[in-house]
Specification:
The chain is mainly alpha-helical. About 50% of the residues lie in helices and about 5% in strands. It has 9 helices and 3 strands, in the order H-H-H-H-H-H-H-H-E-E-E-H.
């Protein structure tokens, strides 16, 4: 379970949705049709998946969320939509998310999701925050825009660390620049360097050797 507290996660998640909506709202057709670093996906596909994922969550369509089949459906359902249309749908999902999140008491927040997702509600919202941050970076990368830093990056490092706890990698100690030290599987050899590069490496978006790591760090591998 994540070590981030509830307020951090809920406030950060909602702020990330605001940031994502602002990012995609002004994209024209040429930008949306630009290929991204997500194999075979355009910027519009990435945006459509993220927007669709939030809609699926607030509509209670949770089974299979994050699977290749569901992510492809989310993107295809929104193919051809404008940036303005995608941002409007996301704004609706953001409003409904803000209404729903306070309804979880502490037991529910720290309890299982009523779906095939293996983590807690807290873990699930952190995963959505991470997904919003990382997919926004996918879009920025495709369009030649600088990466964002801040709390979304920190949350993404925590999500990756949580995912690595369940994998045969490590033990290790993440001592990344500007991020508090995080132990993986009890702690071990230190991993240092840029936290964004670590997230990119751990999600298959960059060569792990750039941080002196092996392929086993990829949480999707």
């Amino acid at each position: 379970m994540t070590s981030l507290d509830r307020t951090e996660i809920t406030d950060g998640f909602l702020a990330e949705l605001d940031n994502f909506g602002e990012l995609i709202g002004s994209l024209d057709r040429a930008a949306l049709d630009t290929p991204s670093r997500c194999g075979g996906w355009t910027v519009g596909d990435v945006a459509g998946h993220m927007v669709g994922q939030i809609t699926d969550v607030v509509e209670g369509r949770l089974d299979g969320l994050g699977s290749p089949e569901v992510t492809e459906r989310e993107a295809k359902e929104r193919a051809g939509r404008s940036g303005t249309e995608l941002a409007a749908e996301l704004a609706e999902g953001r409003t409904r998310s803000a209404e729903m999140l306070p309804l979880f008491d502490d037991a529910a927040w720290n309890g299982p999701v009523n779906s095939d997702y293996p983590g807690t509600v807290a873990d699930g919202i952190l995963a959505l925050w991470y997904d919003g941050y990382l997919h926004a970076d996918d879009i920025r990368s495709a369009l030649g825009m600088p990466s964002a830093r801040g709390e979304g990056l920190r949350a993404s490092v925590h999500h990756v660390a949580d995912s690595l706890q369940e994998r045969p990698w490590g033990p290790a100690t993440l001592a990344l620049d500007g991020i508090e030290v995080i132990d993986v599987r009890g702690g071990g050899e230190k991993v240092t360097g840029d936290p964004l590069q670590f997230v990119l490496v751990a999600t298959g978006r960059a060569d792990p050797s750039t941080l002196g790591l092996d392929e086993g760090v990829n949480i999707y591998g």
